[in-house]
Amino acid sequence: MPAIKITVRKNGPYRVEAPEGSIELVDADGNKYDLSGKTAFSLCRCGGSKNKPFCDGQHSAIGFVGAETAVRIADQSANPTST
Fold it and tell me: Domain count of the chain?
């Protein structure tokens, strides 16, 4: 079993699960985020979080639709007979 698991939540964040200390998360300037004591955390992908890069649940409030879902919807609109 992999030591790190990343789950893409439908219309939600990326959920990261890993043993404490096995992941280093840095910003664009190379500054490390403090992940002390965390074995799981969620990363925002909707852009609405006030606690970026971490998810704060805003995806639900703003009606975020994940790209994988949006692509399927667009494909179905272009070709209504496909499933």
Answer: 1
In a domain, 52, yes or no: yes
Please state whether the peptide bond connecting residue 53 to the residue before it is cis, i.e. omega within 30 degrees of 0: yes
Residue 41 is assigned to a structural domain of this protein: yes
CATH of the domain at 16: 3.40.5.90
- The whole-model pTM stands at 0.77
- Using alpha carbons, select from 54, 53, 24 the residue that is nearest to residue 36: 24
List the structure tokens of 20: 């404490």
Instruction: Give residue 68's pLDDT.
Output: 74
Nearest C-alpha neighbor of 22 from the set 41, 37, 5, 4: 4
Looking at the domain assignment, is residue 60 inside a domain?
yes
CB-side exposure of 17: number of CA atoms within 13 Å?
7
Q: Tens of pLDDT along 61-82?
A: 999 998 876 676 767 777 766 5
